[in-house]
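the two lines:
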Amino acid sequence: MKRKHKRLTFVAIGLLALGVATALILTAFEDSIVFFYSPTQMIEQDVPPDRRLRLGGLVEENSVARTDNSGFVRFKVTDMVHSTPVVYEGILPDLFREGQGVVAEGRLIDGVFRADEVLAKHDENYMPPEVADALKESGKWEEFKGAMTQGDPSAMPAN
Amino acid sequence: MKLSRMLLPWAGGLTLLLGIAGLWFALFDSPPDYQQGETVRIMYVHVPAAWMSLFCYVVMAISAGVGLIWKHPVADVAAKGSAPIGAAFTIVTLISGAFWGKPMWGKWWVWDARLTAELVLLFLYLGYIALIHAFDDPKRGLKAGAVLALVGLINVPIIKFSVDWWTTMHQPASVVKMGGPAIDASMMVPLLLMAFAFKAYYIYVLLLRMRAEVTAGKVRALRLRQAHGAV
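prediction for all of em together
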């Protein structure tokens, strides 16, 4: 075996081993790499109330309610299977809308998620307003959105 | 050297042409987004820069690997030349992303898988640059750097697929995805123009850097010979 062949084999085996090791590590730490949990995951995992975590999903249609004379906002975050009520005091980001993705950070206390930070999540769709309007007019909007969220694991986690 | 002299004006011209056309479309002749409004225009810089940050790294790691295994001097020069360009693209990605994240998400930076992995990529570039210059014997530096570049290669698929494997703040892929792009044609044109402009820019600067490196090597050799001749 020539020296350069030896080096090639060495590098190839090294990279392969590294790949396998990384895959194992990433799988093992999956829970801490995910940025947020869906409402369903929150219910299933029975999280302790003192643990800070992030809740992600879509803001449920017609669920946003602002309480008068206070900065509190109530809304529901849904993954189309379960939804979690959220209470938040503060300024909402521009992109915060019903039907749009959102990530809230806070604690889950007695089934209500008390958020101290709300971030708007943007999805992967880019289009001019006219196209969006045309889709809505032709009634294709729901179909389009549905197809999009189904193919998008982060907007709507499967489990 | 001859090939690079021939390619240089082409790469430079293409960069200018595509860059001007891309910027024209990106800034003036493309619609605002239905959700993001005018802020969508940051994407035309951010996304090509992010693609290039990965592309440069792959080129750098493969060149470094070829240099390590087959001891090809041009490969070493290509790896060494790619590193700062890739690092610059990574910085552009991170900064333009922050400018987009503040108005859209509400935060400059979040520690999700995509953003963190891209930051690690920057450190890999900087580590490689520091490592190849850390030895008195440049050959040893390149060797150590090549090992780092190859090990860091594992980060590239992590960045690309981070948005599919885990829940992230960053949105999933819009262009290269199953079921076709989720981006309107009117926005795809400037995006692709900018992407090719960035690629041509990379080729241009890489060729310049490689020529400079080869010339510097020649100058070193001449000086050495002169010094020996003088003794």
